[in-house]
Amino acid sequence: MTSPNTEREIRRRRRYAPSFKAKIVAACLEGDASIAQVALQHGLNTNLVQTWIRKAKRQRQLSAVPDSVPLPPPADLPTTPATASEICIQLPSASGTISVHWPVAEAAQCAHWLKGLLG
Q1: Phi then psi for 101, rounded to 5 degrees?
Q2: Most buried by CB count within 10 Å: which residue of 17, 27, 93, 109?
């Protein structure tokens, strides 16, 4: 009988090449087989493959968003001019222009709100 210490195997975390991950994600997104089937065929845990898919989708969304978006010049001046103590944001929409006025003292909250709005 062997002691428990000699039977214990040290398990190390596996590392997969980005090209391998991309191949697995592509196979899952093709729709021919379920994520579980693709994972089993390659000896992978389904949750690991789902994590790769989520990361790949996030990467695609981030790469699809441009660093800056050019805005058209304003058609006319706003009816209420912004003062030096406020931030004025104008958003064109189907039903007209939406104007948002925000105190400069709360610029961080304005930036947080704008990031949430733009997704």
Answers
A1: -115, 130
A2: 27
